[in-house]
């Protein structure tokens, strides 16, 4: 048994909006260069890897983690495990890997997510009574009649309830882009198709926000993360390996939980509560907080839940400034957290919500803290 697991390397691709430079790449083709980079950065042989866990939400199935393992030239004995927890899947993959390492069975696991909105398959449901198959854009996340709202509907509802105005949401989105523009991501992004930066990031202004299409209530296209393509992975290892890496970060706690399916944007609050209580960490002591920005309103709710220091939240901007590659988004939060913590000693938190009322959170701390 191992008391803790550690992240010693973390990288991602650029996040490219649907239909962009990554549109012709399969999810395993996006994943492979990132998998290879996390090993190279840590100077660990691929022969030491015993498992690859990859989140994917909108692909065609077929265990794409196996395809990614083979594409990355990992040993053929690495079977690959694909998980689907929608938006939370990338963070869940890392927490699952940590638990497998803590079990003592594994010493080196690569975990994260890869997604391609561009190559998302067209979905048809077979009609059991005959006739033409019926097209559907998303699956049923709860199976409960009247309790499976779209995320945008949930975001609009909570924004109205909590009186988070369109103006406040726009201010959050503008700040996200500003922070992203001011951040150097060269240490974390692995260039693919010559993409070295997140191309969606721009100088968002109030004037631009005013022209944005209304999606639901006070939610607009400017305060909603765009569908995207990307991959992100972390190298999770046992203590006996981590002790050789001064920049290793201990996975102090993790949570994959659920709350009411009626308000899925709030599930992240449950996950945060769990890890903060489990570690007895004062939220004000956190040096970095990475909150998923599927919607400005959702991020604002999470940011205010524990009165986090606003200057510590999404230091390099968030998904509003990059995009939302669903199965990879949680892993991108972990990669961002890892790289921001390299700049300071201390502890950080990443958190995300998902359709169906799911929430995940992860706490990393400097292994010497």
Text of the CATH class: Alpha Beta
Rounded to an integer in angstroms, the radius of gyration calculated over CA atoms is 19 Å
Structural class computed from helices and strand pairing: alpha+beta
CATH topology: Peroxisomal Thiolase, Chain A, domain 1
Characterize the quaternary organization of these chains. single chain
Mean pLDDT: 95
CATH H level: which superfamily?
Thiolase/Chalcone synthase
The main sheet comes to: 10 strands, mixed
Shape: globular
- The helix/strand order is EEHEHEHEEEHHHEEEHEHEHHHEE
Second-tier CATH architecture: 3-Layer(aba) Sandwich
Number of discrete domains:
1
In the predicted model, the low-confidence regions spanning at least 5 consecutive residues are: none
What is the percentage of strand-forming residues? 15-25%
Helix content: 25-40%
- Helix tally equals 11
Q: How many E-type strands?
A: 14
Distance between the termini: 22 Å
Helix/strand layout:
Elements: E1 5-12, E2 16-17, H1 27-42, E3 51-55, H2 64-71, E4 81-83, H3 89-102, E5 108-116, E6 124-125, E7 134-135, H4 151-161, H5 166-181, H6 206-210, E8 214-216, E9 219-220, E10 228-237, H7 239-242, E11 249-258, H8 267-279, E12 288-291, H9 296-305, H10 319-322, H11 326-341, E13 347-354, E14 358-366
